[in-house]
């Protein structure tokens, strides 16, 4: 299911691109969802190492594009999260969305706000990937040790 493209970016540029995507997501309007979700998909597909993608999946491109194409952008964003990733999504009365994502082996969740659920999820996932903590060789740490809560 995961396909890694032959052109692998340098880790620094990959992490920088994730940071830029997170910032752009926070400041974008919902009409930018499709472009930013495709950019996030491309970053996942071109990770410098599969080790950077714990908790992330690369869905089939046709399914992903179908979701984006019909406007099911929340589903497209969530399809990038693996079963071992945790997330929380909320929306304030003013319409601002807030998403938190925690990936396996991380000690803290990454949180992002945006004008749509898809943008908030994309931003939080980009931050979670960018701000990876070094994974411990201890197997219990790889599974989050004691169960972690999203606050």
Description:
- The structure is a single chain.
- The chain is α+β, with helices and mostly antiparallel strands.
- It is 42% helix and 11% strand.
- It has helices spanning 11-27, 33-45, 61-69, 73-78, 117-130, 139-142, and strands at 86-91, 97-102, 110-114.
- Helix 2 runs parallel beside helix 5.
- The longest helix has 17 residues, at 11-27.
- It starts with 10 loop residues before the first helix and ends in a 9-residue tail after the last helix.
Short précis:
The protein is of the alpha+beta class. The chain is built from 6 helices and 3 strands.
Largest sheet: 3 strands, antiparallel
Q: Kindly state the percentage of residues in helix.
A: 40-55%
- The helix/strand class is alpha+beta
| Radius of gyration (Å) | 15 Å
Discrete helix count: 6
Mean pLDDT: 86
The total beta strand count reads: 3
* Unreliable parts: 1-6, 133-146
> First CA to last CA: what distance?
32 Å
The SSE order reads: HHHHEEEHH
Q: Strand percentage, roughly?
A: 5-15%
The backbone outline, from C-alpha atoms, is: globular
């Amino acid at each position: 299911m995961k396909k890694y493209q032959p052109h692998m970016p340098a880790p620094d540029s990959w992490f920088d691109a994730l940071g830029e995507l997170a910032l752009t997501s926070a400041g974008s309007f919902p009409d930018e969802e499709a472009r930013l979700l495709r950019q996030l998909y491309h970053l996942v597909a071109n990770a410098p190492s599969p080790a950077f993608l714990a908790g992330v999946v690369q869905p089939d491109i046709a399914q992903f594009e179908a979701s984006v194409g019909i406007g099911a952008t929340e589903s497209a964003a969530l399809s990038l999260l693996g079963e071992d990733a945790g997330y929380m999504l909320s929306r304030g009365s003013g319409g601002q969305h807030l998403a938190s994502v925690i990936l396996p082996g991380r000690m803290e969740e990454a949180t992002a706000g945006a004008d749509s659920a898809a943008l908030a999820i994309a931003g939080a996932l980009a931050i979670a990937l960018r701000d990876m903590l070094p994974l411990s060789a201890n197997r219990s740490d790889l599974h989050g040790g004691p169960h972690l809560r999203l606050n």
